[in-house]
Amino acid sequence: PVMLLPNHISSIDMPIVLRALPPELRYKVAIATATDSTHERFPWAIPVLNFLFNIYPFARVGQIKSSLDYTGRIIDRGFSIMLFPEGRVSRNAKLQEIKGGAGFLAVEMGIPIVPVKIIGTNYVYPSGRVFPELPSRHDVTVKFGKPIQFSEDTSYIQVTRIIENALKEL
Asked: How, if at all, do strands 80-82 and 3-6 pair?
């Protein structure tokens, strides 16, 4: 298993990254989605999103420990995980500050992280667009960085900076 850490510039980033993966990896990825922005705002869509993209709730505040425990169990079952380390969709398609939780997860889960750069989805389906508007046509690129493994004694802050720099360099 690996932890895929893509930038987040559109609500269609999840399926775009999944489509860019080889099938043998694609079907073994679970995607962490923010409980407050996905599961609480669109409860009616969760069964469909879970079926299509294998999402699971990840709390940004409050019950974070249960989210971490569940993520660990997913990894223990041989699944890779994908989470967006910026915490939300960028409004201007520029890389936002990487949240410290990304560094924590990268160290504590003990699996390699793979930085992922998404380019162009913000033109296909801009942030703030409301479903069911049709997407626009535009080229989209997904770049995968080299896997990075961290030792358990690496500081979370240092790892967060390394992740941010890796995403900037892609």
From this structure: parallel
